Amino acid sequence: MARTAGSHSDITGPRIREAALRLFAKHGYAAVSMRRIASEVGVQAGALYNYIPDKQALLFSLLKGHMDELLETWEATPQPADPLARLEAFVRFHIRFTLRRAESIFISYMELRNLEPENFVQIEALRGRYEGMLEQILRDGQAAGQLSVPDTRIAAFALIGMLTGVNTWYREGGRLSEEEVAALYWDMARKAVGAG
Fold this sequence. Notes:
The chain has 196 residues and is an all-alpha fold. The chain has two domains: 9-52, Arc Repressor Mutant, subunit A (Orthogonal Bundle); 56-192, Orthogonal Bundle (Tetracycline Repressor, domain 2), CATH 1.10.357.10. Helix content is 66%, strand content 0%. It has helices at 9-27, 34-41, 55-75, 83-99, 102-110, 117-143, 152-164, 178-192. Helix 4 (83-99) packs antiparallel against helix 6 (117-143), helix 4 (83-99) runs parallel beside helix 7 (152-164) and helix 6 (117-143) packs across helix 7 (152-164). The radius of gyration is 19 Å and the shape is elongated.
């Protein structure tokens, strides 16, 4: 069967990922068929398998791509030596990253349950790495006498949950700008970890 006009691998592959991300976020992984993704992209259903082995591989690719981007972007962000300044940088980074990737954030949390066990383990390891980076900041802050939390691991989970939750209510063009939201969340995060 001939390839659909305009269907080149460097164009079609990313379009498949974009369509799947949008459809999974809107309808849920279980409700979206490969045929529906193909229709959205404008290719024959069988053509999808030239780009991705199956729907599970597509979900895994989206979640891994999100975590890889999150980790690489944070690691490329300047890291102040002072733990409190580093915590502020983390909070502001996480808010900006989250607000600009609403669909990726949504499926990263809501569709994690649909990963097959071996894929789940890989994504959980990446998530653990990111959580560990925040936990290290909190441990450094404790050691420097700047922060006071009873359990740095639980505090890291709580902070990430709070910061990621911004995605559920924030709308661009609303009452608060992205920077105002980041400043408010930094103030709440600072108080939550006992910083002065």
